[in-house]
Design goal:
With 360 residues, the protein is of the alpha/beta class. The protein has 3 domains: 1-65, 5' to 3' exonuclease, C-terminal subdomain (DNA polymerase, domain 1, Orthogonal Bundle); 108-285, Rossmann fold (3-Layer(aba) Sandwich), CATH 3.40.50; 301-358, Winged helix-like DNA-binding domain superfamily/Winged helix DNA-binding domain (Arc Repressor Mutant, subunit A, Orthogonal Bundle), CATH 1.10.10. It has helices at 4-11, 18-28, 31-36, 39-44, 49-58, 64-73, 88-91, 124-139, 152-162, 184-192, 210-220, 236-245, 263-270, 279-285, 291-300, 305-313, 321-328, 332-344, and strands at 77-80, 99-104, 113-117, 143-146, 167-170, 194-198, 224-227, 249-252, 274-275, 319-320, 348-352, 355-358. The strands form 2 sheets. It has a 9-stranded mixed β-sheet with strand order 1-2-6-5-4-3-7-8-9, with helices on both faces. It has a 3-stranded antiparallel β-sheet with strand order 10-12-11. Helix 9 links the parallel strand 4 and strand 5 (167-170). 44% of the residues are buried.
């Protein structure tokens, strides 16, 4: 895209996050125009003095075109809020990342995704559970999302690949800094059958403050998050908390009551997370039991504005076809036809009596 170099350049400046990206876009119309703006114009945009000074200083050393060339040379793609390929599920979350660096490929079928997360110090039980769940999800046409960390994450990615499925690894470092280094070969395999993804600028090291940010993307890319095994103080709790904030489902696998690694899953189950013992529990809850068929229908019949209106009408509670039609300003016959197609896509459920609910 024509403005992509300027998205990358602004992204390199500390303190320019989602809120300030939105402010710059609203005021200037494009980031190209914002990059050329003087200090007075930037102040009028509503940025504080420190932020304006940071931008003015950065423009002396950052070349947008050189930054884009650097990204291209690494075989990395850049997605922004303006990119049609930006993941739909991630776009829905609060403060979604303005810039994403991707190595590999994001596909439309990645909209059918589930996160599998847990402790870095996985037990033999946790490793086996992660492998069985992830392998079955991937074999069922669901993309497995995780964080490339040691332990549960690693086993989730490997099982998805072994099943011939897709997997996405979200990094807590720059896309060019694989962490842990021992997973370099796994990362290369993921690039061939999914994607590595990061919101951090190139060269960013795996600092502790990056991982909570990474975790919100893991949950944001997914329809639901499965916690396999983790102690109470695990960072996986952050991922599950984000999932709840993003109105996504949270699942937890029960374990040995005497095991420290079972403490967080059991706590989440007590708090309302769905207990799962097999992949079918997850697929059924998320209406993904026929994910490959849903993906085929979605490819054949792309989403429409009318479908979006119907989903918006169903955001609160189930409704009768006539109520949906009135809310969307569409004839009942049109709504019925659209609902039939949306049910095939796995977007809505028919509850009987011409009453429908959102499926996810």
């Amino acid at each position: 895209m024509e403005d992509t170099p300027y998205w990358i350049a602004f992204h390199r400046i500390p303190g320019i996050g989602p809120a300030r990206f939105a402010r710059l876009l609203e005021h200037f119309g494009s980031l190209r125009a914002a990059w050329a703006a003087g200090a007075d114009e930037l102040t009028q945009c509503g940025l504080d003095t420190k932020c304006v000074e940071s931008i003015v200083m950065a423009r002396r050393s950052i070349s947008p075109e050189a930054e884009q060339e650097r990204v291209w040379q690494l075989g990395v793609s850049v997605l922004t809020w303006e990119s049609p390929e930006y993941p739909t599920l991630l776009r829905e979350i609060p403060a979604s990342p303005p810039v994403l660096y991707v190595k590999g490929s994001l596909m439309p079928e990645d909209g059918w995704a589930v996160a599998v997360v847990g402790t870095r110090r996985a037990s033999a039980y946790g490793r086996e559970v992660a492998e069985r769940l992830s392998g079955a999800l991937a074999a069922g046409g669901v993309t497995v999302v995780s964080g490339l960390a040691r332990g549960i994450d690693t086993h989730a990615h490997r099982a998805a690949l072994a099943a011939g499925g897709r997997t996405i690894a979200v990094l807590g470092s720059g896309i060019d800094v694989v962490y842990p280094a021992e997973n370099a070969a796994l990362a290369a395999e993921i690039v061939e059958h999914g994607a590595l993804l990061s919101e951090l600028p190139l060269g960013s090291q795996p600092a502790a403050e990056n991982f909570p940010l990474r975790n919100r993307i893991i949950s944001g890319l997914s329809l639901g998050t499965v916690l396999v095994e983790a102690p109470l103080d695990s960072g996986a709790r952050i991922t599950c908390s984000y999932a709840l904030e993003q109105n996504r489902e949270v699942f937890a696998v029960p374990g040995n009551i005497f095991s420290r690694n079972a403490a967080l899953p059991h706590r989440l189950i007590q708090e309302g997370a769905k207990l799962v013992t097999c992949a079918e529990d997850i697929l059924a809850e998320l209406n993904l039991s026929m994910a490959p068929q849903q993906q085929e229908v979605a490819r054949a019949v792309p989403a429409t504005l009318e479908e979006a209106a119907i989903l918006n009408a169903l955001a609160g509670e189930p409704q009768h076809v006539d109520e949906i039609g009135r809310a969307c300003g569409l004839p009942a016959a049109t709504v019925s036809a659209l609902l039939t197609m949306m049910e095939l896509k796995g977007l809505v459920k028919h509850l009987g009596g011409m009453i429908y609910a959102a499926a996810r």
